[in-house]
Structure formats: structure tokens, C-alpha cells
């Protein structure tokens, strides 16, 4: 029969414990929601640019200045909500890191879709805006 050896720290030395935000676990459903909100915010900011507005909607006319301002404000508010949800899901220690990661992925996806399939960008953008309604119900 083998004897288990338990290692005890040297007396007088202190072991350092890393404190993690207790009770904060990553939920895959919330991660998807944070990603969709990040995409929705960037999509809304993209619509606030006249060139992208024309490409995505296929309209030769430009939107009015007040509607562009509203799109910008709504886009930043949605990005703020996605940040708040990321922090609420993963805590302050890791939430902002996750948010920046989701924001980068959403931005790259928006760039590629806008370059190669502008209409698909619009479709996915509208679907991601529905996640805003869902997040307001959950959050």
C-alpha cells in the first residue's frame, strides 16, 4: 500500500491565492448574445455612414443628417449594452477582454460581408438587431 505525501508550505511563507470573480461563469448563450449585440452595434454605426448606407440599402439618395445622428447614437448605445452584458456575464476581470474579442470578430465579419455580400450584411444586421430585443428581455 502506497502512502500519499501531502506537501505543506514552508512555515512562515505565504501562498498567494488568486481571487476570481465568484459566481461569474461564462454562459455560451450569453456569449452569443454579446457577439450579436456587438455586430448589431457595429452594423448600426456602419449604416450611419452615407456610403455604406447606399451600398447596403441600394438607394441612391442619402439619409438626412438627423437620421444619421440617431443611427450613431443608437449604435454606441448598443455597443455599451454589449459591454455591460459581457461584464455581467464574465465579471470585471475577464468581461472586457471577452467583449473586445467579440467586437473584433464582429468587426471582421462585418468588413468581409460588406465587401463581398452587402445584402447579406443587411440581412444579418437586421437579425442581430432582434437580439437587442431579446437582450432587453433577459438583461
Shape: elongated
Radius of gyration: 22 Å
| Portion of residues within helices | over 70%
First-to-last CA distance: 55 Å
User: What is the average per-residue confidence, as pLDDT, rounded to a whole number?
Assistant: 81
Class of secondary structure makeup: mainly alpha
Element pattern in H and E: HHHH
Tally of individual helices? 4
Main β-sheet description: none
User: What's the count of strands?
Assistant: 0
Unreliable stretches (pLDDT < 50, length at least 5) are 14-23
Q: Beta-strand percentage? A: under 5%
Textual characterization of the structure:
- This protein is an all-alpha fold and 139 residues long.
- The chain has four helices and no strands.
- It has helices spanning 28-47, 50-57, 65-116, 118-138.
- The longest helix is centred in the middle third of the chain and has 52 residues, at 65-116.
- Residues 14-23 have low confidence and may be disordered.
In brief, what are we looking at here?
This protein has 139 residues and is an all-alpha fold. It has helices spanning 28-47, 50-57, 65-116, 118-138.
Topology:
Blueprint: H1 28-47, H2 50-57, H3 65-116, H4 118-138
What are the main properties of this structure?
mainly alpha; 139 residues; elongated; single chain
